[in-house]
Amino acid sequence: MKKWKEDLDHLVSLEYIHFLNVPMKDSKHGPVIDLPSGALDQMAAVAVIEHRIPIRGKEVKYLRKVMGLSLEKFAGKMGLSSGTVFHWEKAVHGRLAPVNEAAVRSLAAEELGIEIPGKFSLLVGDKIRDVEIKAS
Predict the structure, then answer these.
(1) What pTM value is reported for the model?
(2) d(Cα 125, Cα 99) in Å, to the nearest integer?
(3) Each residue of 7-34: pLDDT tens digit?
(4) Is residue 55 included in any domain, yes or no?
(5) Cα–Cα dist 55/31, whole Å
(6) Which one is predicted more confidently, 136 or 69?
(7) How many domains does the chain have?
C-alpha cells in the first residue's frame, strides 16, 4: 500500500491540536491513518502536558480517557470524590484552580510516562494556543 503524509485537524476533541505529517495508507475504503490505534490521542495528551495548556473540564475528561481511567478510578487516584471530577468535566470551558490543575497535570504525566518539572509554577498552564504535533 502506498504511504503518504497529510496535515490533519479535528482528529481529537481539542480544537487547538493540529497534526502534521500523519502517515496514511490506502485501504479499500479510502485513505486511513497508518498509526497504532490511540497513538494520536496519546500524542495530543502529551502535548497538553508538555505545552502547559491550561486544564479545563474538557482537558480533564480527555486526559482521563487517554489514561484509560473511569471517573471513579481517576478521582480515587486524585484523592477526590467522583462527583468533584464530574463537576470539573461538566464545566467544559471552566479552568481548574491552580492547585487542582497542577495535580491533574502531575497525575497525567505520571500515568503517561512523561517527565515534567516539579516546580508548582511550571505545573500550572500558561495559555491555550495552537499546538502542532509531528505525527511521524
Answers:
(1) 0.92
(2) 11
(3) 888 889 999 999 999 999 998 998 899 9
(4) yes
(5) 33
(6) 69
(7) 1
* Residues whose CB is less than 8 angstroms from the CB of residue 82 and which lie 6 or more positions away in sequence, other chains included: 71, 72, 75
Grid cell 502517515 — which residue?
23
Which residue from 72, 74, 54, 76 is spatially nearest to 64, judged by alpha carbons?
A: 74
Cell triple for 50: 508538555
Which helix or strand (DSSP H or E) is residue 17 part of? strand 17-25
- Whether residue 52 is contained in a domain is answered as yes
CATH number at residue 73: 1.10.260.40
Residue 105, number of CB atoms within 10 A of its CB:
26
Any domain includes 136: no
Supply 44's cell numbers. 495530543
Distance CA 2, CA 16 (A): 29
Beta-bridge partner residues of 18: 9, 132
| Best CA proximity match to 43, nearest among 68, 71, 18, 69 | 18
Name the grid cell of 118.
516539579
